[in-house]
Amino acid sequence: ATVPVRLGSLYVSNQNSANRLQIRADGSFSLQEGGQSFNGTYSVTGTTLRLRIGQLQRDVDVAIQGSTLIVNGNETWVQPSQ
Hints:
Number of helices: 0
Number of strands: 8
Largest sheet: 8 strands, antiparallel, barrel
């Protein structure tokens, strides 16, 4: 049996700490990136986190590697230490 991926509630970009992704248990998210705010809904399939961004009317697939997210294939987003 595959173990369901456990998502954190907050991820921050290693490349730019102003970029942050808030994951909510109700299936919604909010994203601050490049000085802009986005929100929408998400789903997880295997190790892929799919963000459906309302403002852009498009889906973005993010790779989940343990407690890290890989955005755009090379940008790592991590969960800040609590």
